[in-house]
Amino acid sequence: MNPIEQLMMWGLGTNYPTLAYAIWTLLKILVIVVPITLCVAFLTLWERKVIGWMQVRIGPNRVGYGWLQPFADVFKLLFKEIIIPTGANKALFYIAPLLAIGPALAAWAVVPFADNKMLSDINAGLLYILALTSIGVYGVILAGWASNSKYAFLGALRSAAQIVSYEIAMGFALVGVLMAAGSLNLSAIVNAQAGGLHQWYFIPLLPLFLVYFISGVAETNRHPFDVAEGESEIVAGFHVEYSGVTFAVFFLAEYANMILIALLTSLMFLGGWLSPFPITNELSLFGMKPLADGFIWLAIKVFVVLFFFLWIRASFPRYRYDQIMRLGWKIFIPVTLVFILFLAVIMQTPWGAAFH
Question: pTM here?
Answer without folding.
Answer: 0.90
